[in-house]
């Protein structure tokens, strides 16, 4: 996989033999024939006869087949009724399992066909809309706020571009993107600011990009490839039945051998004793056990269907009931994946409305008439908070329309907009928001009843309030303003508008916990299931959220990736039962094997971005959070239907998939299996 992020935009275009006018239709077709469609490969569908033979590999079924053969042999074909009954039981058992799998596959295919995503593509100098499946490397695509990125791509040009990469990194705050950045080789996925990743979402701005990888060559495709490379593993129930089959076989053989030997000691005819031993062996085989197990599992599947769960393989329904630990990522699962203003600090708590007004006007969020906000989560949090205080962004903009702006950039760490002052012709107000330390350093005054000089004492008050919010794991932005007599000429640098400001206040926001999760956590504890948080966030943020959800309690441990790097396996196994938070990096190498091995001891249900989890936890409920869900669902065995399935989690290896907006659904299904409901 080429490291396009280490090349300039021009070098990338040259390397892909493309240009800003895109590929010609003929060249695009040739590349489509060469690279294939922009889709993730699913496992090959087995023919009916192969699936039927798979059902025959179960140890208990093999014992039954052996019993049928022995029955025919022992009776010289005369007592064929028992053999036929056994074969019928085997056939019915296989048919039930195959029928359930077919129903689940058809339901899943119907879900996948509900939408065919389109992409805006430049072909032959003209912008057209194509199904994403027809994209090829070298295609030039146009991305705007709200678009789902259809393939991995290098940014050619962009304006105030931000992307929500939480599905890949777990970070709830959108990432700023830059077209002119050239990064060193080996840059981790979350730091590739000049690339957009397939299945992430554009939250703000506009971009022109060139596709660098499609299908299985994308980052999501790499994950799918790891999933496809795994062999099917047996569930705990299947392993126990296999043990019973082996034990039963050995016991039967032993008893038969003893009976045969006793008969020989009493000088009974050899053939008579052989037939008696075989009859005894056949009688000892529980022909009804496989059928009973299949029926019970089928009943469990039907109960799950009533709760919108599609089970692809019968044994998978039992696995969830074995979970003793649920490991969940934080963003979008335990939390709402939506930033919310939690605290507003102003001198004397007298200027909350002024701070929210600045935050709402110095803002690119679109507010619909129904009150729905679209845009960057941090900015939508401002607009939502202002609306809750009776400050409608649309009305504010009618009174004070934006006439000039300086977009946010990572160097200034500020965003500024200019608005005319109502009733004061020729006068304008510069609204500024950004990093507290940067904005405070550019202020000369502070709004404390009236605008007064910013003294060292007042500055320390602001810094103390900022530190207090940070300790609560809040993301803090500062607001300020200044009045000017005329509009800026040309394209002034930020320093011309963003100095001599009046400080107004601090706004602290956080991605709040989902309302239903705390109750689900309590249900977990009541059922003896231990919830664990795995996140890429800062330890302080993770602990704050976990405490609010009652996942983290006094005496519990929060372990970081740095801790794991130097922690021996023995110590990790010792501390594992007291560790309720893991703050890990988002790259695939960040999840150490030692942690996975420790998790495997607890029959854990794992929600994670780390495909290697299945190497160790392969018989547990293992979730994956990625985009392109329609394709990754092909790897899974249970699916929880949800209207927002496109934002779902994937489960592999005797496991299931649930919506990222329904973490409590995982608990609900698990507890129902525990209770037998």
Structural class estimated from helices and strands: alpha+beta
CATH fold naming of the largest domain: Rossmann fold
- Provide the residue-averaged pLDDT: 75
User: Can you say what the CATH homologous superfamily of the largest domain is?
Assistant: HAD superfamily/HAD-like
Largest sheet: 8 strands, mixed
Do you know the CATH architecture of the largest domain?
Answer: 3-Layer(aba) Sandwich
Kindly estimate the percentage of residues that lie in beta strands according to DSSP.
Answer: 15-25%
- Helix run count: 26
Distance between the termini: 48 Å
CATH C-level category of the largest domain: Alpha Beta
Rounded to the nearest angstrom, the radius of gyration is: 31 Å
Fraction of helical residues: 40-55%
Number-wise, the strands total 26
What is the total domain count? 4
Q: Mind explaining what this structure looks like?
A:
There is one protein chain. The chain has about 675 residues and is of the alpha+beta class. It has 26 helices and 26 strands. Helix 5 (about 80-110) packs parallel to helix 10 (about 290-305) and helix 13 packs across helix 14 (about 375-390). The longest helix is centred in the first third of the chain and has 33 residues, at about 80-110. The protein is elongated and about 120 Å long. The model is unreliable at about 585-595, about 600-635 and about 640-665 (pLDDT under 50).
